[in-house]
Amino acid sequence: MTAETFRKDKYLRAAGYNFYVWAAVNLLVTWPLWAALAGRPWPTLLALLFPIGLIAAAVVLVVQNDNRVEKMWGEPNAQPLVEAGAFWGPTLLIAFVLTVVLVVRGPAAYVQPVWLLLVGAAYLTWGIFGVREFRWFGATLIGAGTLAGLVVRPDQIPPGLPSREALVVWVVFMGVLWVPFGAYINRKYVHPSSAGSAN
User: Fold this and answer.
1) Is 96 domain-assigned?
2) Is the pTM of this model over 0.85?
3) Which of 7, 82, 111, 157 could pair with 73 as two cysteines, CB 3.0-4.6 Å apart?
C-alpha cells in the first residue's frame, strides 16, 4: 500500500494518531480495576461512568485527528479501500455484550482476554484486506489475548475482580505497544520521508 492510498482512506488516514488516543484510554480504563485489586474499589456508579466518559472523550479526539489529517492531505476518497466499519461494528458490539455477561455472570477476569482476542481479530482482518502491518499487529494481540486467558485462574480470584496477570498483559499489549506502533504508522504512511514510499 502506498502512503497516498493510506492518506486518502477515510478509516486509515488518522489511524496512527488514533493509536495514541486509544492507548491512553486502554491504560486509563484499568485504573478502577487496579484500585479494586488493591482493596479500594470505586463506587459502582463512578466505576461504570468512568469508561463511558473515556470512550466519549476518545471519540472527540478521534474526530479531531480526522480533521487534522484532512487539513494536511485534503478530503478522503468516497470509497475506502476496505469498509472497515463492516467488521469493527459487530466486533465491538460482541466485545461490549461479552463484557456485560462476564461482569454479571463471571468470571469477570476474562474481560481483558476477550477484548484482546476480538480487537486482535479485527486488526488481523483489516490487515488481510488492507495495511499489512495490521496483520502482524492483530496476530500479536491475539497471541496476547491467548496468554492473558491462560494466566487467569478463576478459582483464585474473588468474584467481580480482574486477574492481576491478565491486566499486566493488557497494559503492555493494549496500551504501551500502541504508542510505538502508532508512531511507526505515522512515519510510514502519514508523514513518509518520500511521498512515493510504498509496501
Assistant:
1) yes
2) yes
3) 7
